[in-house]
UniProtKB/TrEMBL annotation:
This is phosphoglycerol geranylgeranyltransferase. Residues 395-420 are annotated as: Disordered. The lineage of its organism: Archaea, Methanobacteriati, Methanobacteriota, Stenosarchaea group, Halobacteria. One of its GO terms (biological process) is glycerophospholipid biosynthetic process. The keyword Transcription regulation does not apply. InterPro entries: GGGP/HepGP_synthase_I, GGGP/HepGP_synthase_sf, GGGP_HepGP_synthase. One of its GO terms (molecular function) is phosphoglycerol geranylgeranyltransferase activity. PANTHER family: HEPTAPRENYLGLYCERYL PHOSPHATE SYNTHASE, PTHR40029. The keyword Lipid metabolism applies. It comes from the Archaea. It catalyses: sn-glycerol 1-phosphate + (2E,6E,10E)-geranylgeranyl diphosphate = sn-3-O-(geranylgeranyl)glycerol 1-phosphate + diphosphate. Signal peptide: none annotated. It comes from Halolamina salifodinae. It is an enzyme of class 2 (transferase).
């Protein structure tokens, strides 16, 4: 009888939850317009003043499909955690979720690929649950209450596992570029690419049965064009709760507008952001040769304006952000601030080297670096110190707090400014 009543009570609770899902927006994932994906892979760099560029996006997602490790993930979080912008963690491996990343991330995104092999859906999820249950949850329990008896700690680890997973957002992917690293990781071949109708049906299953908080249509490095627009249009009225994210090949405002009008709640931009750092490295190396450390702001502005183009990476990335009215002007402003900060840091490094002082100690209060960051972050002193340590440190030296942030930036002053 008690079991019968319990089952009936659970059905009533489920019905109430379904009614709430249909009538209210119960999705814990905010309705962001724009998310920037930061790949911790060593080859994917951040602009020196990355907080300026990332102040324009609604959220940052940390994750990638190739060459991502717990170490470079930790380095990325070292740099990104001080931002005012929310930072999500999208791990590509269960061991990437650590106590540090759990504390640093505002939201954990658990990927599940709907058109990949079974490992990409069930196997990956199983590995994630196992890692939480056997590693992360017991470690958290042991840290908080090491005096608990083993049986109680084990029971609490079960509860903590369920709680941690309940706080995560499940991200149901439809991977549509079989030549991408994401497709290789998920076992998606050309025969697994879905038609718009098939994509809609998978999306409905993820929304109503898997209860995925995010439905992610992913073209990974290429723009889905008319096919993506049709798939998004079909999903638009078919999903009840899932947020629809689109990612792949977005590098201008026109493509962003097309997918948003078709039904994408959120656009995700990754490669376009990392290309900003690639171009920035070239500009900073040229600035070292052409500009003095004491160059006045007007001279720097004119020099930068000649090197930042309307179709360059900076303006193109900013054009993908809804609400940025003049991407070119903003790209020039941010690049100019970067050049001023870089020349000052380089000058201090050179003067310290002449005095054989090693890594110089910088009074952050009187730097172009802090002045640039002050308008966009809550704690400019902390973030300016983080960026300065990364820029002034080398690959082998790391930074003062033990992180390896220098490997993430477009340039480091290590070895005379050569990028790595």
């Amino acid at each position: 009888m008690r079991r019968h009543l319990a089952a009936r009570g659970e059905r009533v609770a489920d019905l109430a939850r379904l009614l709430a899902r249909s009538a209210l927006d119960t999705n814990p994932v905010p309705d962001w317009d724009h998310v920037t994906k930061v790949d911790p892979e060593a080859a994917k760099k951040l602009p020196l003043l990355y907080p300026l560029w990332l102040s324009e996006t609604d959220a940052v997602s940390v994750g990638g499909s190739a060459d991502v490790t717990p170490e470079n993930t930790a380095a990325a979080f070292d740099l990104l955690t001080p931002l005012s912008t929310p930072v999500c963690h999208e791990p590509s491996g269960a061991d990437h979720v650590t106590k540090q990343s759990h504390e640093a991330a505002d939201l954990l995104l658990v990927p599940e690929v709907l058109n990949g092999d079974s490992e990409a859906l069930v196997g990956t999820l199983g590995a994630a649950v196992e890692s939480v249950r056997e590693d992360l949850a017991p470690a958290l329990i042991d840290e908080k209450a090491p005096w608990l008896p083993g049986s109680v700690a084990d029971w609490l680890a079960n509860v903590a596992t369920s709680a941690l997973l309940a706080d995560a957002a499940f991200e149901a992917y439809i991977v549509q570029n079989p030549d991408s690293a994401a497709a290789r990781e998920a076992g998606v071949g050309s025969e697994d690419v879905l038609s718009p109708g098939e994509a809609k049906r998978r999306a409905m299953a993820a929304d109503r049965h898997l209860e995925s908080e995010i439905l992610y249509l992913e073209y990974s490095g290429t723009f889905g064009d008319d096919e993506a627009v049709e798939a998004l249009s079909r999903m638009d009225d078919a999903l009840v709760r899932s947020r629809v994210w689109y990612g792949g090949g977005l590098s201008n405002g026109e493509d962003v507008q097309a997918v948003r009008e078709a039904g994408a709640d959120t656009v995700v931009v990754g490669d376009a952001f990392h290309r900003v750092a690639e171009r920035e490295a070239e500009i900073l190396q040229a600035a070292e040769e052409r500009l003095d450390a004491g160059a006045d702001p007007e001279t720097i502005r004119e020099w930068v304006d000649d090197r930042v183009a309307p179709d360059g990476p900076g303006a193109r990335f900013l054009s993908t952000v809804p609400g940025v009215d003049d991407p070119l002007a903003l790209a020039c402003e941010y690049t100019g601030a970067t050049v001023r900060a870089w020349l000052e840091l380089r000058d201090r490094r050179e003067r310290a080297s002449e005095r054989d002082e090693g890594i110089p100690v910088i009074d952050i209060q009187r730097t172009a670096l802090r002045a640039a960051l002050a308008p966009v972050v809550d704690d400019p002193d902390r973030l300016a110190a983080t960026v300065a340590r990364a820029a002034l440190s080398g690959r082998e030296e790391g930074v003062g707090d033990g992180s390896r942030g220098s490997e993430q930036l477009s340039l480091s002053l290590f070895d005379g400014g050569a990028s790595h």
